[in-house]
């Protein structure tokens, strides 16, 4: 979608083609906010808070979404759905400004049927929380995430709940947490093992499985996340099958921002890294897991400010023409009692096909001061592919870091550090 218009493209196409607009509105969608969508009966329904329309692939047209029975819910301010998904064959809508704690479900397999009080009650009819015995959730709904055919996760501003089973078949609304909410929109993804990952309304990342309490996993990057303004940031979380990683994209919504920093967690090691796009127009606004026939087609696609769809390619030598810069900090090296350490030398082994890297060493009386210190001379020394000669350091500090930077593709196998603990005599002298 671009400026409220709907475009399509097939795999390997090099240009977008605009769908025919039959809604009578120009453009058919509101583009002052994030537009979300879901698919049911091979139709794509849009949620923009203002309009009701859907895309029909068979005719390549955008049409007005009209109820064939009942009335598609809207707020007292005439606001429309801003959130939605497909669950148990129903189209689920929520996010009404004037009714924020409610959730609405169309009839099963009938996204145009919204009669909540038909003459004859059936198990497949349309249903809403406030028309069912379960009642509204009691917290503004920020996210609806279909976990399985039986479970729908409902993230509120301060709570996490789950709907178990169909609302018309004695389904239950159970409280998972009264302390953890979800960020607005679609701040979640799932891996192949059934773990749900999401960003909370207070800018933390959690992992969750049914029967468990949400577990915070973002402590290593807490200092980055706490600076995020959740009211001005579009949060999207995606699973990258090729890299076995979870991407947390934190994009400023007002305009492209060169300072946006995103996060990635490698699932096999649990390691967090930061990601920053050199071109601010590449910051993601939308995500989609494309399930193609070939290995290179099965990837996490991101939609950006410039209208392009891109995906992560671990074999790429550059980022759409821009040099890929890497920056890794290892440490701190400290003793168990935080006594002063002497780093005598470093011996690095890089992969045989690795590119050259630069490294620097930092030291200080505390980990924080060491990380903020100036690199020790000589600066920007290099390691090349294979086993490298010993790099002498012979400097002492209570905390020591090693920083590796490069504009090449590189792979580190190991670093051996020769470290000795300073004796008690030296420690007393320094304290005298």
Describe this structure in words.
With 432 residues, the chain is mainly beta. Among the domains are: 219-324, no CATH class; 326-431, Jelly Rolls. It is built from 3 helices and 36 strands. The strands form 10 sheets. It has a 5-stranded mixed beta sheet, with no helix packed on it. Strands 9-10-11-13 form a 4-stranded antiparallel beta sheet, with no helix packed on it. The model has no long low-confidence stretch (mean pLDDT 92).
Strand order of the largest sheet: 3-7-6-5-4
Coarse shape? elongated
Structural class: mainly beta
- Per DSSP, the total helix count is 3
Work out the strand percent.
35-45%
Q: What is the averaged pLDDT score? A: 92
How many strands in all? 36
Please bin the fraction of helical residues: under 10%
What are the low-pLDDT stretches, counting only 5+ consecutive residues below 50? none
Please outline the major beta sheet.
Answer: 5 strands, mixed
CA radius of gyration: 26 Å
Alpha-carbon distance between the termini? 69 Å
């Amino acid at each position: 979608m671009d400026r409220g218009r709907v475009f399509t493209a097939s795999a390997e196409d090099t240009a977008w083609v605009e769908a025919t607009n039959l809604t009578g509105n120009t453009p058919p969608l509101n583009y002052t906010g994030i537009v979300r969508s879901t698919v049911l009966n091979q139709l794509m329904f849009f949620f923009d808070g203002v309009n009701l329309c859907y895309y029909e692939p068979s005719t390549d047209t955008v049409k007005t979404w009209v109820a064939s029975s009942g009335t598609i819910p809207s707020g007292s301010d005439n606001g429309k759905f801003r959130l939605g998904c497909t669950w148990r064959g129903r189209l689920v809508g929520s996010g009404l400004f004037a009714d924020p704690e409610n959730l609405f479900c169309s009839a099963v397999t009938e996204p145009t049927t919204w009669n909540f009080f038909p003459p004859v009650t059936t198990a497949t009819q349309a249903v809403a929380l406030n028309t069912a015995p379960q009642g509204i959730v009691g917290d503004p709904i920020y996210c609806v995430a279909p976990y399985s055919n039986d479970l729908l996760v409902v993230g509120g501003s301060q709570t996490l709940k789950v709907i178990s089973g169909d609302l018309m078949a004695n389904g239950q609304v159970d409280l998972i947490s009264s302390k953890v909410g979800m960020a607005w929109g679609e701040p979640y993804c799932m891996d192949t093992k059934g773990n749900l990952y999401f960003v909370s309304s207070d800018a933390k990342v959690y992992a969750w499985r049914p029967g468990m309490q949400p577990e915070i996993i973002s402590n290593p990057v807490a200092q980055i996340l706490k600076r995020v303004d959740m009211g001005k940031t579009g949060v999207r979380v995606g699973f990258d099958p090729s890299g076995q990683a979870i991407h947390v994209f934190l994009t400023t919504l007002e305009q492209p921002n060169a300072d946006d920093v995103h996060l990635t967690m490698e699932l096999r090691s649990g390691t967090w890294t930061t990601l920053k796009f050199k071109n601010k127009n590449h910051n993601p606004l939308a995500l989609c897991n494309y399930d193609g026939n070939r290995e290179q087609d099965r990837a996490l696609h991101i939609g950006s400010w410039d209208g392009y769809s891109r995906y992560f390619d671990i074999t790429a030598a550059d980022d759409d023409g821009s040099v890929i810069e890497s920056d890794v900090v290892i440490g701190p090296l400290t003793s168990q009692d935080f006594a002063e350490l002497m780093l005598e030398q470093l011996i690095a082994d890089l992969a045989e096909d690795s590119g050259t890297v630069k490294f620097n060493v930092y030291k200080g009386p505390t980990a924080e001061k060491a990380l903020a210190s100036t690199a020790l001379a000589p600066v920007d020394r290099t390691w090349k592919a294979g086993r490298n000669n010993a790099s002498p350091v012979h400097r002492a500090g209570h905390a020591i870091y090693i920083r590796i930077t490069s504009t090449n593709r590189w792979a580190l196998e190991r670093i051996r550090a020769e470290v000795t603990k300073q004796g008690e005599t030296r420690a007393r002298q320094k304290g005298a």
